[in-house]
Amino acid sequence: MPRPHCCAPAHHWGLRATLAGVIACGIGALLCTTQYVVLPGAMKLDWSQMPWALGLLAIVGGIGVGVCVGGSTLLVARRGAGIGGLTLAGALGGTIAGLAPGLLGIAGFGSLDAPYAGTANILSSILAGAIAFVALWSPQLTGHHHRQSWLGLLGRSTLASIISLGAFGMMAWSVVRGLDLVPRFETMAATANAMGLLPFSLLVGAGLGLVGGAAIGAACGLVVHIRPGAPA
Predict the structure, then answer these.
(1) What are the start-end ranges of the H helices in 69-139?
(2) For the residues 153-163, what does the mean pLDDT come to?
């Protein structure tokens, strides 16, 4: 299969990647917050300060995802890498990108006296953010982004993200179940107390970043290499 024509101009990629990351993280944060406010006890937080905190989380996370995941996938795409190469690049970039938002999101929000956001809420928000980033960033990995329908691109990005995140999620779930490490709030709280909230936050942020980055890289690879009418 011939290599796709590549890529985003060298002097523009950082801005585009950062913008895609901030928008994606903003969408995820907005969805997570919308689902969070209906939880019992959520309104006892000082919501006058929360928009600033959530905005900072979206910006810091977006810059990390854009620069690290976007930059690593762009680098290997320029070398003609396939889906496997983009997956590995996304995993490496995601591991680094997950440190700062893990610290802010887990150590920062985790230190508050407030209800747990819920695993389903967190995972669905990550999925929404990943879909948005794949849709915004994957066209920059080829020279065909001006010829694509945004509706078609969004559809392929959504499908690719669900397949990719679903596959990586199932794999991670199988591993943690096999090792009897199913994450429960009580277990996570005990682990955080035992090892310290700061190290725990960095560890979890890096782990989620690795899995999420790998899934984003794989999804970008699916969008880039499996296009309607693309030559085999």
Answers:
(1) 71-78, 83-97, 99-102, 109-110, 119-137
(2) 79
